[in-house]
Fold:
Amino acid sequence: MSATGVTAGVDLGGTKIQTVLLHDDLVVAGSRARTPQTGDPSDVVEALAAVVEAALREAGAAPGDLRAVGVGAPGAVDAETGVVTGAANVPGLEGRVEVGSLLTARLGVPVVVENDADAGALGEHRRGAGRPFRSLLGVWVGTGVGGGLILGGELWRGRRAAGELGHVVVEPDGRPCTCGRRGCLEAYAGRVGLERRARKLVKGGEKTRLFEIMEERGRERLTSGVYARALEEDDRLARKLVDEAAWALGIALASVQNLLDLEAMVVGGGLADRLGTPFVDRIVEEMTPRLFVADDPPAVVASELGDLAGAVGAAVLAGG
Structure:
């Protein structure tokens, strides 16, 4: 590596941690690991450090080549202090955890921490499908549902928690959400909410291959790949769940568009990436009739960076 070194970007999710290294604006290496499920915050911080170190080894870089690290994390993130609060989908980060300072102590370099959905939106805006647009919403459908806003070409954080798309209410007093409230989009379109719904319907007598496919694949949860396989088999319950997710997303995105009049929406995240264009098209079908200006809708495009969007955005924030 040159004297300018490398910048690491880390995307912390409920099931996996994805890291990239940027060098001269190019992704030169990456590494992935499972998110610890122990419930111990120190295990999460250690896993973040380990995946960065693995990426350095893959790139043939020395620890001294690392300039800085950016982390995209779920929950409420204080970008000034690096504190993460209420990341319900990451065991160990449900409370208040000083991720930034702990990781700095472990790796010996500056660490910036940003909300994962915001980091993903910035990644797509600077390096991916959002480059042509000055205003956009990044929509991330995975373990939960995240949103990140770019307004006037800049990341919009609001007072701290702007872009919490997953907690837009799509049905008052509806299904319970991991945040403790009811009717949130995340309860209808995130994988956690979808699985909860699937188990309830199966208990009530509905038939599905979802859980058989899960076991055949050696999974403990209904992953994005499980849903994709079930849809290929024309599983009725899988189709019902995905249609409900598209319905809820359509309501939420139409409401956002009617308020902000954005140029574009970039749709990504594990579930959306796996289900592809047909899923994005279903969301658009549900959104369009609810738009105030239906004859001039925003561009709705699939993520260009895929599951690297959050990590790339985090690296950009850290100076990559």
Notes: The longest helix spans residues 236-260. The longest strand covers residues 26-34. DSSP finds eleven helices and 13 strands in the chain. The CA atoms of residues 140 and 292 lie 24 Å apart.
